[in-house]
Specification:
about 270 residues, about 15% strand
């Protein structure tokens, strides 16, 4: 990898690099490290419950260790609920939640008590809170500041660390989605944004042709939007990506050829 892909990353300097958990843990960490060196933001696709754990295994050396904000390796992840649980369990068992730098970020986020669910319920469906989904996504934020949890027919939950000065921190429209606010003088953290996006369309089970490729469609549209010269907000892109996911659900192809119709929306 060092001799083949690292020079290409350095030459082309992509805005985003998508890595998935089909790679073994060591190679996955190398992709993240070299992507960061090329100034790319990293998106992580967990692939499966078993493979999702690979991001949170012990690094082969300190140079490949996963950092926390603002020195994080992964900027965005798109797990489903089972993959999120797997990532959370792997991080917990490997001691990631015992690290001093994790605690420093958690403290800075000024989060509500994890044992008190009222705030979480107000932003996400109560059943999701009972399953621990919002809480698990929040605990991963120091390592992955944007987690888009795919909920199937329940939609998508965004859990995101906002930077100081983000318009959503002062927007009346978005105030209901602000889970917490950091101290006003914090240099890199403004608060936490959590919002449940209901599905673009509820498809009767008989109309679902295949679920293969739905996750790839969702992430592909998100990244296609984020790599634009003047990208739309992530909130806007989630809604477009949900439309594309519906198209793929109805298609016999791995990714619906109709998603090209969404290009002008990006």
């Amino acid at each position: 990898m060092h001799t083949v892909w690292k020079p290409r990353l350095s030459k082309h300097k992509p805005r985003w690099l998508v890595v998935d958990a089909n790679w073994d843990s060591n190679t996955l960490r190398q992709w993240i490290k070299h992507g960061k060196e090329a100034k790319a933001q990293i998106a992580f696709e967990p692939v499966s419950v078993a493979k999702a754990q690979r991001l949170f295994t012990t690094a082969i050396s300190d140079e490949f260790e996963l950092g926390t904000l603002p020195n994080h390796g992964v900027s965005l992840a798109t797990p489903n609920t089972a993959e999120l649980r797997s990532m959370h369990t792997a991080a917990q068992e490997a001691g990631f939640f015992d690290r001093d730098d994790w605690w420093q970020i958690i403290d800075a986020l000024r989060l509500p008590n994890f044992g008190s669910t009222d705030k979480f319920v107000s932003m996400a469906d109560g059943l999701l809170v009972l399953r621990g989904i919002p809480q698990q996504s929040v605990k991963l934020l120091p390592f992955i500041p944007t987690v888009l949890t795919k909920l199937g027919e329940e939609g998508v939950l965004i859990t995101q660390v906002l930077k100081p000065g983000d318009d959503r921190l002062t927007s009346r429209e978005h105030s209901q989605y602000i889970l917490s606010r950091a101290d006003i003088d914090h240099p890199t953290i403004g608060g936490v944004y959590m919002r449940l996006f209901r599905p673009a369309e509820v498809i009767p089970e008989n109309d679902v042709v295949s679920v293969n490729g739905v996750g790839d469609t969702f992430l592909g549209i998100i990244i296609a939007g984020l790599t634009r010269e003047n990208p739309k907000t992530l909130v806007e892109l989630i809604e477009i990506a949900q439309q594309g996911s519906v198209m793929t659900l109805k298609s016999k192809e791995a990714v619906s050829p109709d998603i090209g119709r969404l290009k002008d929306l990006l």
